Amino acid sequence: MSQRRLSTIVRCGALCTACILAFFGALQLTGRVARAEPPSHWTRLRGVVSAIDLNSEPPTVTVTSAGSARVISVNSDARVYVEDVTIDSRLRGKLDDIRVGDALLVVLASDGRVVELHDIFRSSAGTVAGVSANALVLGGGTVVTPSSATHVTLDDAAAKLSDVHVGDRVTVRRNPETGELREIIATRPVSAAPVPPQSVRITSFFISAKRPLRAGESFDVEMHGTADGQATFDIGNFVTANTMREETPGLYRGHFTIPDRFNIGGTPVYGHLVVSGSSAPRAEAPAELSAATTPPAIVDVAPAGGEPVNTTRPNIYATFSSPADIGIDVASIKIVVNGRDVTQAATRSGSFVTYSPSSDYADGAVTVSVHVADAAGNAATRSWSFTIKTH
To answer: Which domains does the chain have, with CATH numbers?
Structure first.
């Protein structure tokens, strides 16, 4: 519906028959009646993706819930979201981003049309430190043992576990509710081997981001290579096939703005170039990308809120973490006790702040406020009080 027509309805200020007819008439012309319903009229189905058929018309997704399977036809205007619960990330996606084995939340309008599909999974990532016949060992000692149902890819091609080598980067995808390991996505660091002179090539590829980014901030991507091609870039396995434009022969540029609920740490950015059907070897930007849109969490505090303590010099502390492990800006940490900034007398680190008073507090309430920000600038504050009671 046009903005002009919507504005006319708003200015009318009354639910006149003409306005109501115009409103719903416009929605019917655009085929979006389901979206006009209030969410309270929608139904939700949650289950596990057991099959996807992208070749049917319309495409279908089969969801298994409580032992029964339901085939759902997906209309073209359904919104698709891909959600990684590990890093609290939610991105707009496409139907082919949905994976068999993932958890799926389907939101249906009263007429049965699909309003939203939420593909939900849990991921972990790392560099392969060891490989055996039936398992991978990641840096830090995490052991990944696939089952016969686990799908393995290496550089976007189907692979076997034995194809994965020490030094490869791996993302492991699991169902967040059952823990079942459904997919191992491996990428191999780009080789520095020379490219034949007549081949399609990428001579340089880099991103402008120099620090972790937050929601609304953006970065540029620049590629130099063979002219008259189609260039794209990927942000790890999270956002792929982002288009780049050729501004002058052989110079390609792209741009990406960090959306809400996008939390990644130390993620490689890859460049791809295709000229007349021939592909250049994949390029990897020298700098990795980190971004956080979820503020750090102030997890534990002591003394706890409302707790009575029997010492006049209580040890006061708070612990915190950031969802994408991008790190806390230690310089941002501030602690205020009873309205007095005691930060300079406190011990601060990337995971906690602690303060030990140098003089006695009187019996009664003690108020504490802790402020912290992550390396991207997302901030969080937590305030609480406890009571000193020595008599």
So the answer is: 3-30 (no CATH), 38-189 (no CATH), 202-291 (2.60.40), 297-388 (2.60.40.1220)
Beta bridge partners of 118: 81, 105
Within a 10 A sphere around the Cβ of 182, how many other Cβ atoms? 21
Q: Which of 321, 377, 376 is nearest to 353 (CA)?
A: 321
Helical spans, DSSP H, in 280-374: none
Interhelix angle 17-30/3-12, rounded to 10 degrees, is 160
- Is pTM, for the whole model, over 0.85? no
pLDDT tens, residue by residue, 135-165: 999 888 889 999 888 999 998 889 999 999 9
d(CA 352, CA 96): 42
Closest CA to 207 of 137, 159, 254, 277: 254
- Asked whether the predicted pLDDT for residue 68 surpasses 80, the reply is yes
Query: What is the CB-side half-sphere exposure of residue 291 using CA atoms within 13 A?
Result: 27
Beta bridge partners of 279: 274
Contact 298, 370 (CB under 8 A): yes
Helix (H, G, I), strand (E, B) or coil at 201: coil
Closest CA to 230 of 276, 192, 269, 161: 276
Task: Using alpha carbons, select from 92, 242, 97 the residue that is nearest to residue 183.
Answer: 97
What tokens were used for 79? 């919104």
> What are the tens digits of pLDDT across the range 81-128?
999 888 778 888 889 889 999 999 999 999 999 999 999 998 888 899
Contact call for residues 241 and 273 (beta carbons, < 8 A): no
CB–CB of 206/285 below 8 Å? yes
